[in-house]
Design goal:
about 350 residues; alpha/beta; 7-stranded parallel beta sheet; 6-stranded parallel beta sheet; 14 helices; 13 strands; about 40% helix; globular
């Protein structure tokens, strides 16, 4: 029985967590002994007798620089596991903080997989300052080249990851398997734009709010709902106050199940500076919303209409596309009903792709 070690030191809410749990569900019935290194217990429905948890003790880690310290403790657990078992039977798969695991696995000559969940070019470009941008570039260059396989989730990300590599063939495209079935809904919808994501620089809600401010001057009967939480929450709320649109912009915080909100709304706007493959955009399309997105990785994989792509980091472009979507709603909604391109995001297809990859190692 092969031993599969899953490295996920900081169990965060959002797309990575969702993809991580989907992967566990994919492999737990296979011929693997699965070790999971993380900082939070996992619900029983995702586990079975072949899964062993190695839980990082949060109490010994200071809150400041939590992710940094949790990663080092996770590296310690990983090293112990690599010493303990026959190296030929082990595969390490990192979902997060992959730099140090790549070095450890290279030293032990262990097969090392990493999942790249965001476009590395965008992450480098929009890092805070030149020094951090350089460090991001170097860490990705080293990590990618030390890995055995790199799993990416969109065509643009695959292309950009290959820019960092000497051996480009190690990149494997496996789409996020985030939907169980294609939905065909006929709901009465409200004049609402939705944005879902962490409230931070990457998700760029600041440009979306400014765009909505311009839209609100001419389209008074529309609202903007922002779902998510993060470090920019207070700043974004203050911006709404200063623009006098607080009554039109609602912050829902973190919402576990967005089905009701999706089903009642007409539009979804992804305003991110960079992505890997935005799960929220897949969900929104599947629930029948007319979706707009900046030109980030995954946008062309998910949307079936190039006219819905927005220029990155451009408030005016976001405003114009929002206005375009309102004006052409009936036509866009009708075209949006064709969801054949969403089949690649079905759970069953993701499972097949992973089974094929793991059997080849």
């Amino acid at each position: 029985m092969k031993k599969l070690i899953l490295f996920y030191p900081s169990f965060e809410r959002g797309g990575v967590k969702r993809n991580f749990l989907n992967f566990i569900d994919t492999v737990k019935r296979g011929n693997y002994e699965i070790h999971i290194i993380t900082d939070k217990r996992i619900k029983k429905k995702f586990l079975n007798k072949n899964i062993i948890l190695h839980i990082i003790n949060k109490k010994v880690i200071p809150r400041i620089f939590y992710k940094f310290f949790s990663s080092f403790i996770a590296i310690y657990y990983l090293t112990i596991l690599l010493f303990k078992y026959n190296l030929k039977d082990k595969i390490v798969y990192s979902f997060q903080s992959s730099f140090f695991p790549s070095i450890v696995c290279f030293f032990f000559r262990v097969k090392f997989l990493i999942r790249v969940s965001e476009d590395p070019v965008g992450a480098t470009k929009y890092a805070n300052g030149r020094l951090l941008s350089l460090l991001v570039f170097l860490s990705k260059f080293i990590t990618y080249n030390l890995s055995t396989k790199i799993i990416v989730n969109a065509k643009m990300t695959k292309k950009n990851v290959q820019l960092f590599l000497f051996r480009k063939s190690k990149v494997c495209l496996i789409y996020n398997s985030v939907i169980s079935k294609i939905l065909h809904l006929k709901n009465k919808r409200k004049n609402v734009f939705i944005n879902v994501g962490r409230l931070c620089k990457q998700k760029n809600q600041i440009s979306l709010i400014k765009a909505f401010y311009y839209l609100n001057k001419f389209k008074k009967n529309y609202k903007l709902i922002i779902c998510g939480d993060g470090p920019d929450r207070n700043e974004l709320k203050k911006l709404c106050v200063s623009l006098k649109i607080s009554k039109k912009v609602k912050f829902y915080g973190w919402v576990e199940d967005l089905s009701k909100t999706y089903n009642e709304s007409k539009f979804f706007v992804l305003s991110s500076l960079y992505e890997g493959l935005p799960n929220a955009l897949i969900d929104a399309r599947n629930h029948g919303l007319v979706c707009l997105s900046t030109n980030v990785s995954g946008a062309y994989d998910i949307l079936n209409d190039k006219s819905l792509i927005i220029k990155n980091n451009d408030t005016v472009s976001i405003y114009r596309k929002m206005n375009y979507a309102i004006t052409n709603y009936k036509k866009l909604e009708k075209k949006n009903r064709n969801k054949k391109n969403l089949n690649c995001f079905l759970n069953i297809n993701g499972k097949k792709s992973y089974e094929k990859l793991l059997s080849s190692l």
